[in-house]
């Protein structure tokens, strides 16, 4: 399986953790493992530097956009100064309904996680 990326030991990807794996961000949202394409739709921030919030969403480290880890869709647009631009948050959310973050598949074999 040459297209696989080794993520690492399953025991090390603990709940709330987010890491980069090739062109994907991989994380653990309360036990749900996910892989989404790595860059925010807003200003291309590296989501591997992001976090998981109390709702189980992936949060962009630059301006706080939130992504549903199951669908890759933006559920909250940019925050801070960018939130003050009328329609910007709504426009980006609409964009990600049509063009959500891409999804990968995380699998575990013999205690090791792989990205397919």
Polypeptide structure, described:
This protein has 116 residues and is mainly beta. Helices cover 9% and strands 34% of the residues. The chain contains one helix and eleven strands. It has one helix at residues 88-98, and strands spanning 5-9, 18-21, 24-29, 32-37, 51-52, 58-59, 66-67, 74-76, 103-104, 106-109, 112-115. The strands form three sheets. It has a four-stranded antiparallel β-sheet, with no helix packed on it. Strand 3 and strand 4 form a beta hairpin. The radius of gyration is 14 Å and the shape is globular. The termini are close together. The mean pLDDT is 86.
List the topology elements.
Layout: E1 5-9, E2 18-21, E3 24-29, E4 32-37, E5 51-52, E6 58-59, E7 66-67, E8 74-76, H1 88-98, E9 103-104, E10 106-109, E11 112-115
Antiparallel strand pairs: 1-11, 2-3, 3-4, 4-9, 5-6, 6-7, 7-8, 10-11
């Amino acid at each position: 399986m040459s297209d696989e990326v080794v993520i690492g030991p399953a025991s090390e990807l603990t709940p709330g953790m987010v890491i980069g794996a090739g062109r994907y961000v991989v994380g653990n949202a309360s036990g749900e493992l996910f892989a989404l394409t790595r860059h925010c739709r807003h200003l291309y921030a590296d989501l591997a530097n992001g976090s998981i919030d109390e709702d189980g969403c992936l949060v962009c480290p630059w301006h706080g956009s939130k992504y549903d880890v199951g669908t890759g869709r933006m559920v909250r647009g940019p925050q801070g100064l960018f939130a003050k631009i009328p329609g910007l948050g709504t426009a980006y959310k609409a964009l990600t309904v049509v063009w959500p973050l891409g999804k990968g598949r995380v699998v575990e074999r013999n205690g090791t996680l792989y990205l397919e």
